[in-house]
Amino acid sequence: MRVFVRKMSQIIPDLPEGPLDFYRKKASFDWKKLKVFLDTEEIVKYQNDVHKELQKLSIFKPNIHEGTFDDFRHKSTMQYLHYGDIDLLKMENQFEDLKRPYAALRTMFQLTPSSQIKHSVGDNLFTGVIRTMGTERHQHYADDSADAKIFGCFCLTEIGHGTNTKGMRTTATYDKKKKCFVFHSPDFAAAKCWAGGLGQVATHAVVFAQLVIDGTQYGLHTFLIPIRNPEDMVPFSGVTVGDMGEKIGLNGLDNGFLMFDNYEVSRECLLNKIADVTEEGEYVTPFRDPKKRHGASLGPLSGGRVNIAGVCEAFGSKALTIALRYAGVRKQFGPGDEEVPILEYQTHQHRLIPYLAATYVLKNFNTFFVEKFFQMQLDSIFGNNKNIGPDLGIEIHAISSGSKPLAGWLMMAAIQQCRETCGGHGYLKASGIGDIRNDCDANLTYEGENHVLIQQTSNWLLKFWPQILKREKIATPLESANFLSNGLDILNSKFSCRAEEELRRPENIMSMVQWLVVYLLKETHAKLENFPKDETSQFWAKNNIQVYYAKDLAVAFIEHYFLKKMLETINQSPDGNIKHVLERIFSLYGLWSLQKHTTVFYKGGYASGPNITDFIQNQVLKLCSELKDDAISLVDVIAPPDFILNSVLGHSNGEVYKNLQSAIFRSPHAMSRPSWWQDIVNWKYKKSKL
Fold this sequence. Notes:
- By secondary structure, this protein is α+β, with helices and mostly antiparallel strands.
- 54% of the residues lie in helices and 9% in strands.
- The chain folds into three domains: 2-111 and 301-452, Up-down Bundle (Butyryl-CoA Dehydrogenase, subunit A, domain 3), CATH 1.20.140; 152-289, Butyryl-CoA Dehydrogenase, subunit A, domain 2, CATH 2.40.110.10; 454-629, Butyryl-CoA Dehydrogenase, subunit A, domain 3.
- It has helices spanning 2-11, 21-24, 31-39, 41-56, 69-83, 91-94, 100-111, 113-133, 139-146, 290-297, 301-329, 346-381, 389-421, 433-441, 450-453, 455-462, 465-469, 487-491, 500-503, 506-529, 535-544, 546-570, 576-594, 598-603, 611-628, 631-638, 642-645, 656-666, 683-689, and strands spanning 152-155, 171-175, 180-184, 192-196, 204-213, 216-226, 239-243, 255-260, 263-266, 276-277, 283-284.
- A hairpin with a 2-residue loop joins β5 (204-213) and β6 (216-226).
- α11 (301-329) packs parallel to α13 and α11 runs antiparallel to α26 (631-638).
- It is globular and about 90 Å long.
- Mean pLDDT is 92; it is low at 1-5.
- One of its GO terms (cellular component) is peroxisome.
């Protein structure tokens, strides 16, 4: 036992003693064991090594006073460049263990989100598109980007079009005489926009444009275009490029706009793996169906959606660490003379602990899903196509189109609760929560507006209903929809829990969620069938079944998959205490999620009488209370180190008031008179002299 304790201390440093010990000593489990169980010992060591490397570099030293807007941009860009010099963060090292990419993503987004997006877009997405969509003639650009000889960005969205990619209006017209493409933006609405890195830094851009040959449009294609001279960063003639301006958050990232004025680029700029144009102007593609070619050209976007769910969790974990540690120290009121921590109050528990459970479930899902996605990418790059097949990519797209929205909605709501539960102190910039909230906000709209994106999930699910009616076996590569094979039997089941304690059992929660998914699938399909079958009617039908039906179906399906993966992890736990606390987390997230669907259970005949509503409400509150003493140790498991957390309210030492005093007293100009003091002294006298 002593050897184990010593080994654990070497892997995971002890936390400082302080006010939070009151709750840490109450925990029902060993937080270090839980961290190693969830992350693995290798990943914990990897994270520690990354943290040490980052702390060595002064450029990553946190500072809530960033200086001017330009100072922030400069620092963010230099951080991005330094990321490329850290061996542990290079993709070849991350791919040694496919759990590393998610661990690295969490660390970098929690530390410097603006520079990490620049890194993700400039290094990962830009080079990834070149390697997967280009051919041999393009690969040196990916190498140059990795060596920081050029800087890349990804340009799909336009001022006038975002989610509707087929409506993009930037054109690439092939000139047979000059054997080049001529790029043109007909007006400002056709300008490429919001591309990270485009505003000030990018020298090259992956641009999606409508291909035109001899007056015929061939749809959206992908091009690699030089836009600035890498030697002096000056835009080329025919290119208008600039910055979008200050944003709500992520202001270290230079989001930009891009317009072309009959800008000529060589024929080889077309990324030609899925389509090409010969010198003579002949269009060549292996795809007979233009829709499939269009879908293949947008394939790289799935990676962004997979990662965004992880980014949301990283932000949510950071905010919940701050709010729950604060709740464990902050004392207000009490039954007697002594005040009690606000974490003791039921209202406070109900506001935060369900989101803590959601964060655990989401982190567990992301650990699995990001690993699966990168494995698929590697199999594709190295030609191991027998391991992937088309169905895997389709399923990953369907899941990511639902997990990205649900993760964003959950974590933004969690962060707002964290802000409010910290009271006035949570409004301080030094709390860190405001920056977390503002930076996370973008996840709700980039890489697909959530309410539109999630329709991809429900569209995929609707295709299974005819198979359910025929009792056909449904087997998907990631097993997310396999339970639908028993859809008719599930639909005939009824709520059978006679006591509250039965309700929290994992098997009963899974049964309820499965019934919910199948019922919503049946109802959504029936709603769709009520519309005429002509193309115009079907267009409006898909849009008019979203509220109450298709969207709820997609959300319930993703919630089921989150719970399925969580239950698989719980069943692997060799430690009884860890298994017990994870089961409570599972049950709380499951019942809390089901609570918003109770009307559906009555409407569909699954339940009658008050039991299901009363049972869920009572168990949610009871589970919050049971997890209250574990909450601080649970956030210790998922918390970043203090230099990354960078919060006076959430420091691991729990010394909220000492940290707060230090931050306030060290704040520039906190106790000095303003530089404009003379303007207000004797104001009325001065005004009379005017």
